[in-house]
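dumping this here so i dont lose it
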């Protein structure tokens, strides 16, 4: 759950704080991608052209965010996840390590997708997708 991270982010904003965008020197972020405040892109991650990453997001090591993907605020895309072109991920969602999301799929808000899942169809908000 991103609740603690959201609460801390909102507290900092109320106190007038500004959070930087942090991109590892070992990551690639297209100059045509948009990263919002408080977002971090870790080692080996790729964020391609036309992608928009919301505020207070974590794009973890070796994650792939393809072209025209929209990641809502307060999301966490884990290590090695593959988010294909045109995917939309709603705010507060968690994408587990090694998950693959097919192009054009819409993931609702506050969704949890566990590690290794392959998502071929839209997922409604507040759904948990896990093994077996």
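and the seq i came up w/
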């Amino acid at each position: 759950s991103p609740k603690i991270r959201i609460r801390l982010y909102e507290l900092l904003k109320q106190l007038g704080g500004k959070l930087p965008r942090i991109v590892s020197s070992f990551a690639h972020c297209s100059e045509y991608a948009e990263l919002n405040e408080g977002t971090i892109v870790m080692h080996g991650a790729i964020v391609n052209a036309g992608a928009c990453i919301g505020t207070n997001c974590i794009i973890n090591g070796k994650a792939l965010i393809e072209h025209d993907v929209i990641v809502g605020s307060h999301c966490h895309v884990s290590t090695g996840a593959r988010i294909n072109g045109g995917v939309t991920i709603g705010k507060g969602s968690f994408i587990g390590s090694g998950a693959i999301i097919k192009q054009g799929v819409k993931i609702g808000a506050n969704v949890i997708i566990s590690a290794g899942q392959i998502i071929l169809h839209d997922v409604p908000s507040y759904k948990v997708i896990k093994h077996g």
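The chain has a mean pLDDT of 96.
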